[in-house]
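INFO worker-7 received task bundle
INFO bundle size: 2
INFO processing item 0
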Amino acid sequence: MRLREERGSVVLTALVMTFLLGVTALAADVGLIYLERWQLSNATDAGALAGIQDLPGSPAQARQKAGEFFRHNQSDDAAVEIAIAPDNKEIRVAGSRTVSTFFARIFGVESAQVQTRAAAKVGTMKSVVGLAPLAIPDQTLLYGHQYILKLASHGAYLTPGVATSVLSGGYRVSGNFGAIALGGRGAHQYEMNLKYGYDTQLSVGDTVPTEPGNMAGPTVRGVEYRLSQCTHVPRCTVDNYRKDCPRLVTLPIIAGFGNGRSDVEILGFAAFLLEDTGNEGKGKGKASYVIGRFIKRLLPGEIGSGNDYGMSAYRLVE
């Protein structure tokens, strides 16, 4: 009887050990596959985010860059497929890799296929944090051209190369010179927003009040502060600038300025590289102007619809 019991214990022990070995094999190889899938997912995300930077303008370059960033984040034996939407506003990156198992080979499972995919999309910017307290009436903006971002009270400050003034026809409308009130009225709030940007998100469709008056001192101090923060060598230009340079400002596009203080609707956003500021007149008649050069910007953000003013957003959508 005792011999039978001992033989039964040996058989039971063998079964338990086999079960535990199987669980160990499953846990180890599942962990390995999960790690490989995580790395592959990072590679497809990196490829999609890199490629979208060149869309919609350069699909061939977008495809090449997506492949390069995928390879940089994944081993050479991984396969990748890259597809760009017909409108050149979306890129899809699909990756796959065969992962060899270790313990699971005991049970005849020698490998597992890992697959991930990512998609990124680009479109017009819907919302912005950090707006400068100036606005541009709706118009077609020309890349690299100078624009008057704020008028002086004596009329448009004219200088060679200025494409158009901030106000239609180059004149002011009943006390408005291009300024808007963000987060409160008054020259102090205006100057703080001009130096550091308005710290609350605003979106297409929101309304903001205009800020009548010239505010010569706050304007010059605010712009000169930003200009002084550009210490990059070589100095930033429209063709070569640091993305975090304080000279870069984002302004809302509006339908136009009304008479006196009034609410205006945000139609979109545009970016400019600040170039100059100064005063016209003397004493109480002193008035300030602001000059900037139009640039196109692509930033991570929420994608909206409507007119494109060169301010684009991109994001992962899958």
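INFO item 0 finished
INFO processing item 1
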Amino acid sequence: MAKKVTMQSIADELLLSKSLVSKALSNQPGVSEDTRERVRLTAMKLGYPINSSILSVPSAKTGNIAVLLPREDLKDFEYWGKILHGIEKELSEKQLSMIVGGLDASLPTNEGMPSCIADRRVDGALILGLVPLGYILAIKASGIPIVLVDSQNYQLKLDHVFAENYIGGYEATRFLLEKKHRKIGFLGDVQYSASFTERFRGFTAAIQDYRADNRTEIEEFHLTASKRENFFPYSIRQLEEILEKGQRPTALFCGNDPVAFDVLQQLEKRGMASPIDISLIGFDNVQKCEWTTPKLTSVDACKETMGVRAVQLLLRRMENPDERSEHVRITTDIIERNSVLGLI
């Protein structure tokens, strides 16, 4: 039987007095905001029941929705732009405003939290990408309704919208197999994110199923090293080694489009090209896929739809705070361009 969590349990965890914990959980004066936040977060982690009135959002509606993502991702509009466009479009139709904020993972939550959250100037929050768990728990503890978008915090019982990464990886691999490729590699650091892990799972499952269904010999190349020597989430050293071998894959499924773009450059440096020397397929279908030579075949995650559905889930959560959370998976499509060669 699980041990019952009490105020003393929280006090012991934080090395505080039981009376201080009691004051923090009942919003009494004499407790610093930092200590109050630590107590609330620890209570949630340990499973201590917190009075919902403590966490309630003020009844006055602001008409604002916070859209939060890691600060470094604010520069990557190519990836997040379609999601943000979907969010803005749906919020505008509902006559709501969007406040975009960056979260600094290097700062404590009480220092790095955007003022719109700290000052309770929003009615809800959409949290995008790889945001540290502490921030998510702190926002949840404040009582502000949350929906996660393309996150990897699957263990939290929160509404979550993400691409169907496993099926997308499966379909990308089947696409290469149906083009008669029998030496296929997955390129990407599977420890980089949960999405990479799921795409790799789809890659291996598709090969196993194709082998079983067609009794065909297929050679797999798992280029999944976690050590990265460049900005992109893959090992350039591992790619170099495989390119120098006579027995290299005829096609690579890249963990995302930026990996594929970098591979195109690495091939060019070596006097090689896609798809003649090696076929490539990416994931995300960012706009740059149309600009590369060759134009990149990619798995489209329908990111604008992700943004729209995230807003719809958040509005539902704001109206029905006690309903069970949902995980919404957006299906994928392959956008075929010129980077995959069909073999005879």
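INFO item 1 finished
INFO post-check item 1: The longest strand covers residues 64-70.
INFO post-check item 1: Residues 52-59 have pLDDT under 50 and may be disordered.
INFO worker-7 idle
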